[in-house]
Each structure stands twice: as structure tokens, then as C-alpha cells.
Design goal:
Elements (H helix, E strand, L loop, with lengths): L2 H22 L5 H33 L3 H15 L3 E2 L4 E4 L4 E4 L5 E2 L1 E4 L2 E4 L3 E4 L2 H4 L2 H12 L3 E2 L1 E4 L2
Parallel strand pairs: 1-8
Antiparallel strand pairs: 2-3, 3-4, 5-6, 7-9
Length: 158
């Protein structure tokens, strides 16, 4: 991305953060407030990453530094995989048959009884627009206008 594109993305992200902050005042449940807070945190993290990238670009313009160029490339690659998770994040280790939700402790997915051995991992289920409430259109706009995926999923044990 060019510095102009980064500046535009920075402005969009900051604008969406303000929209979500304003929208939070209309929340009538703790769940809705938590979703808003998580989205605000995610947008702030994206803004912070863009600021680092823009600073590295400025530093590189001033002087041709191979290390800065390498660091900028790495930051761009990391930002290219940036995702905002509003509720649950699921990590599965197929080698050990373990999983963890939201980076908490690992849980064994293997169950054994007289009927045999079963491996049962949770699945991620998308929140409905009703569950997202007023955040549903905002989340869609963030993804459309910035390219940053916003995942609003809940881990469910099958």
C-alpha cells in the first residue's frame, strides 16, 4: 500500500471507531456493550498498526535503510492478515486433538467410553444480524470499505 492509501485507511478506521463509540450509547444489554467494546478495541489495534506502517514509510523516505524496508515489509504482511474477532476465536491442534477458545487453556477433544473413542471439536457459528443488532450493518461496512474481516462467531460444542 502507498502512504496515501494508508492515510485513507487510517481515516476510515478512525471514523468507524467514532461511529461504534456513538452507537454504543444505545446498547441495552451487557452482551451488546461487550460486542461494541471488542469492535472498538479491534479498530484501535488496526489504527495502531497503520500508524506503525506509516512511521516506517516516513523513516524509509528519509534514508534508504535496508532493515527499515524489511521491517515495513513484515508489518505489511502482518496487517494483510489482520482480523477483528468480536466474540470467540478457536484454535485447533489436530496433532494433539486439543482446542482452545479465546487463547485460554487447551482442552482435550478426545472422549473414550465403552462405545469407542470420539474426537469432538467445537465449531464456530456466525452470530445472526438480530444478535449483532445495530452493529450488523457497521460490521459489514467495515469489511467492505477497509478490507479488514470482522468475525462475529460463537464457539459451540457439537
Amino acid at each position: 500500500m502507498t502512504s496515501d492509501q494508508n492515510l485513507m485507511l487510517y481515516a476510515k478506521l478512525a471514523g468507524f471507531r467514532l461511529v461504534v463509540l456513538a452507537n454504543r450509547f444505545g446498547c441495552d444489554t451487557d452482551f451488546s456493550r461487550e460486542l461494541h467494546d471488542r469492535l472498538i478495541e479491534g479498530l484501535e489495534a488496526a489504527v495502531a498498526r497503520i500508524r506503525v506502517i506509516m512511521e516506517l514509510e516516513r523513516t524509509l523516505i528519509v534514508g534508504d535503510d535496508e532493515f527499515i524496508a524489511y521491517q515495513l515489509q513484515g508489518e505489511n504482511e502482518i496487517f494483510g492478515r489482520f482480523t477483528i474477532n468480536l466474540l470467540d476465536d478457536l484454535d485447533i491442534d489436530l496433532d494433539t486433538c486439543e482446542y482452545r477458545i479465546n487463547s485460554r487453556g487447551w482442552t482435550n477433544a478426545v472422549a473414550a467410553d465403552d462405545g469407542g473413542v470420539e474426537v469432538n471439536f467445537p465449531t464456530l457459528v456466525r452470530l445472526t444480524d438480530d444478535e449483532l443488532g445495530t452493529l450488523a450493518p457497521i460490521v459489514k461496512q467495515i469489511t467492505q470499505k477497509t478490507g479488514i474481516p470482522v468475525h462475529a462467531v460463537r464457539a459451540v460444542q457439537c
